[in-house]
Each structure stands twice: as C-alpha cells, then as structure tokens.
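ok so I'm stuck.
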Amino acid sequence: MGRTYRDLVLWQKAMQFVTDLYRVTREFPREELYGLTSQMRRAAISIPSNIAEGQARYSQKEFRQFLSHARGSLVEVETQLGIAINLGYLTPSRGLALTKQRDEIGRLLNGLANSLPLRTENRELRTSS
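replied:
not stuck anymore, here's the structure
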C-alpha cells in the first residue's frame, strides 16, 4: 500500500469516476438537478472520500469500515445509473462505460479490503503479550 491515499490506484480511479459522472450528469434534464443528478453526485463523491478518510485512520479495522462505506456508495451509484438509463438520461453506451469503471472500482475495493488483516491492533497486542 502507498504512503497516502493519493498513492492508491483505487482512489485515483474513484476520482476519475466522479469526474466522468459529473460530466455525464451535466446533460441530465434541469428538473433532475435536485433529484437524481444530486443523488448520483453525492454517492459518487462518497467513494473516494471514504477511501481517503479510511486510509488516514489509525487502524486497519477502521480502514476496512470506511472501505465498506465506499462499497455501499458504489452500489448506490450502480442503481442510479440503471435508473438514468431506464429514464433515457443516459445512452446505453455511456451507461456501459460508467458501469465498466464502477466494476473496476468494485474489484479494487474488494481486493484492498481482502488484503487488510481481519485482526484489530488491540487483539494483536493481547496475543503478543
């Protein structure tokens, strides 16, 4: 793992996803600005934000919890992408491109979470005493 969250490929990909999602949602109908557009943007922003906050925490357990929050936001965006496609706000090809990004971020999230030890630091201290 890198020295800061900015070194994580996962965080970098999540940041690109937010940027791409913002560009796509600019084209949504004006009446969706406070509805689907806002909801999708908030959920997408939450992904790299939780990765960054979790990486800055002092324990692997806390990091894992924040990665779980990021995963929840990722699934939220996935659902909202489906809604946007169903409503005709996104073409299937643009939706597919975002879905591919989402899938890659999901794989990276799972990989990072699975690489973190399940034990907490306190438990490690107790077993080494």
